[in-house]
Specification:
- The protein is mostly helical.
- It has helices at 10-32, 44-54, 58-91, 93-107, 111-122, 126-150, 154-162, 167-205, 210-219, 223-251, 256-263.
- The chain is globular and about 70 Å long.
- The relative contact order is 0.10.
């Protein structure tokens, strides 16, 4: 694996850039050959030529700032609430059993169904977007946290109790390290969902931000500007996911899953012991012969019996 001066995997990034170029080329070919209706779908060249000048205007960046503001606040509220509630529910069997059906009911409600209520309460304001984003990200993070907390091996938990760890010690040293990868996955997935919900609320309800600029381009007949704003939203989403993935791997580098990814080898842990010799899983294991040696004092020859 070749890495550049700043530690980046050059081949990985080159493959990613090649994928982008290929996607743009296919997009351009489909619009030029009119497989995609040019009236409804802007070509790649038109979109990029429109995006370039737009990046130099304050109107675009003010929309980006307003979108990120609603996304960040809603994501933070939903994440904190989901982790705290999920931890409490996951640690208590009674709380888990009593809240299971309620959570299953609420998490199946489409977020778009909450939008009229949010508009009725707050109008097309920042608070409306925050409410929608918070509702959308709360339940994925809540469920991931519950699953993570409840996935603690009972043997490990009992071992910690035997070694004198109190409630806080077991929570800090056993429960949270076990739940951390689950929570990190929930946060990463919820971040992309938060951006989508914020833009959705701007498009449907007319809240200020990139979504509103998408609608302005569509209503004004500027299809190139509309797709340019869609590209901006997609780029922001990629940056969020890549940033959170990198942060996740750095903060959880001590975990066995991430050690394997970082070092490219199977890291040792108690449930997966290292083996000095290669093992062929297709061949049955050899039987283990246990030899029992009787004490000398109990053997007939040792006591002089005939």
């Amino acid at each position: 694996m070749y890495r550049g001066a700043f530690g980046f995997d050059v081949r990985k990034w080159a493959a990613g850039l090649a994928g982008i170029v290929i996607a743009l080329a296919i997009w351009q070919i489909l619009t030029e050959t009119k497989v995609l209706d040019p009236v409804a779908v802007s070509s790649a060249s038109t979109t990029l030529s429109t995006l370039g000048p737009a990046l130099g205007t304050g109107h675009l960046w003010s929309g980006v700032g307003e979108t990120l503001e609603g996304t960040a606040i809603g994501f933070a509220l939903g994440a904190v609430g989901g982790v705290l509630a999920g931890t409490v529910i996951g640690l208590n069997d009674i709380a888990y059993r009593s809240s299971f059906l309620v959570i299953e009911f609420l998490k199946t409600i489409p977020v778009i169904a909450v939008l009229p209520l949010a508009v009725l309460l707050f109008g097309t304001t920042l608070q409306m977007k925050v409410l929608l984003v918070t509702f959308g990200v709360f339940f994925p993070i809540l469920m991931q946290t519950i699953y993570g907390v409840r996935s603690v091996d009972p043997v490990v938990r009992d071992t910690g109790r035997v070694f004198g760890l109190g409630t806080w010690g077991r929570f800090k040293s056993i429960t949270m390290p076990t739940a951390a990868p689950y929570i990190a996955t929930g946060l990463r997935l919820a971040a992309a969902a938060a951006l989508l919900l914020d833009v959705l609320s701007e498009i449907v309800a007319g809240g200020s931000g990139i979504g509103l600029q998408i609608m302005e381009g569509q209503e004004g007949g500027d299809i190139g500007y509309t797709y340019a704003m869609i590209v901006v939203v997609g780029t922001i989403g990629v940056i969020l996911v890549v940033g959170l993935t990198t942060l996740e791997r750095r903060l959880l580098a001590w975990h066995d899953i991430y050690r394997d990814k970082l070092h490219g080898e199977k890291a040792w842990h108690p449930q997966r012991p290292r083996c000095a010799l290669p093992v062929d899983a297709s061949r049955p294991a050899a039987p283990v012969v246990v030899r029992t040696v009787a004490p000398v004092a109990l053997l007939p020859s040792a006591v002089g019996d005939p």
